[in-house]
Specification:
Blueprint: E1 6-11, H1 17-32, E2 37-42, H2 54-62, H3 79-82, E3 85-88, H4 91-100, E4 108-111, H5 132-156
Parallel strand pairs: 1-2, 1-3, 3-4
Helix pairs in contact: 1-5, 2-5
The structure holds 4-nitrophenyl phosphate (4NP).
Amino acid sequence: MARHPAILFVCLGNICRSPLAEAAFRQEAERIGLDVTVDSAGTGDWHVGEPPDPRAIAVARANGVDIAGYRGRQVAPADFERFDHVVALDLANLARLRALRPEGSRAALSLLLDHVPGRAGEPVADPYYGAQEGFDTTWADVTAGARALARRVAEAE
Ligand code: 4NP
């Protein structure tokens, strides 16, 4: 690859799951010494310009990453040119991304947990309407996905 790989995580609101996937991937990339561009976005536009949900900020902080400075944005067709991997957090958003993807775009589109052996096809559940504990599950899921994907990206380098 001519430049370092770029990875975009996409959920619905870009305030819960995808910022946590971005944080977990940054942490894992740093741990294994992988030089990457990482970002996240939402298929929806309700939270554009907003910081992550306070419960997401809290679980990331408890796991050693500060995401308070992240800001929500909506995914756009140009992201399929800017990123090598566009990674959906669940199946509804994967379907939206398939519809948005420009013809002939070079980005690889995948579901996050497809990268984890034994978890293909599983979504990362939306924790937005649940309790704080749901965010611990989200963190565990995005960490498993981030580790598996980071290994795969590192092997392709
Ligand atoms: P996320 O969670 O997709 O993990 O960021 C959600 C956040 C906000 C909404 C839905 C899901 N919402 O409907 O505002």
